[in-house]
Structure formats: structure tokens, C-alpha cells
Write a structure and sequence with these properties.
Layout: H1 3-16, H2 18-23, E1 32-39, E2 42-48, E3 55-59, E4 68-75, E5 78-85, H3 89-99, H4 104-120
Antiparallel strand pairs: 1-2, 2-3, 3-4, 4-5
């Protein structure tokens, strides 16, 4: 992963999961990946996190969604989608609409694929 992107990812993860991080002993590492997927008509870099449940999507360089990220994490047994950034509202809204429709099995498949893709690039 590009050093700048990893710094940004670490900062975003720390902010997005500050409540979760306070409850857990190990910090959440979301560096496995990336896998490139399209949501809302734009490319996203998909990363899997060390808790084996959380997925982070960062807008790909040059994307109209940039800068923006989404996190998909479990709350009360269901996946919740959270996002933040200043990229194109039209594109990020479309992506959000697609992401909230993903089933648990589809999110778990993203986790596996991102981890697998990250292992290939090392």
C-alpha cells in the first residue's frame, strides 16, 4: 500500500472506530488488500480488517468520489455502512445505496477476496 494511503487509512480507521477501539485490546489493522471494486459507478479500493468482520472502502485515485471512505462493520449482528469525505455526493450516495444492499455473505466474500488479493501482492 502507498505510504500516504496507509497513513490516511490508519487515521480514518482510528476515528471511525474510536468507540470500538476503546473496547478492544488490539488495534484494528485494515491494510489487507486492496481489491478494486466498482460501486456507484466509481472504483473503490477494498481493504479487509484484522477483526475478520470489518471492510473499508477508499475512493480510488482519480475517482470522482475522492476523497471518501466507507466502512462496513457489524453492529448487533448486522452490517452497518458508514462513510465520510468530500467527494462527489452523487457518486458516494449511489455507492452507499449499493453497499447497504450487500448481504452478510457478500460482505464476507469481500473480506476474503481483499485478504487474498493482499497476500498475492506481497
Amino acid at each position: 500500500m502507498h505510504p500516504f494511503r496507509s497513513s490516511i487509512a490508519a487515521l480514518m480507521i482510528a476515528c471511525a472506530f474510536s468507540d470500538t477501539a476503546a473496547q478492544t485490546k488490539a488495534p484494528l489493522d485494515c491494510s489487507a488488500g486492496p481489491l478494486t471494486k466498482a460501486y456507484g459507478g466509481a472504483p473503490w479500493l477494498v481493504y479487509a480488517c484484522s477483526d475478520n468482520e470489518t471492510v473499508v472502502l477508499m475512493s480510488a485515485p482519480g475517482s470522482p468520489a475522492m476523497p471518501f471512505y466507507f466502512s462496513l462493520f457489524k453492529k448487533d449482528g448486522k452490517y452497518v455502512v458508514s462513510g465520510e469525505g468530500t467527494g462527489s455526493r452523487e457518486v458516494t450516495s449511489k455507492a452507499h445505496s449499493e453497499l447497504v444492499k450487500l448481504s452478510t455473505a457478500e460482505v464476507e466474500a469481500l473480506l476474503i477476496a481483499a485478504k487474498s488479493n493482499g497476500a498475492k501482492s506481497k
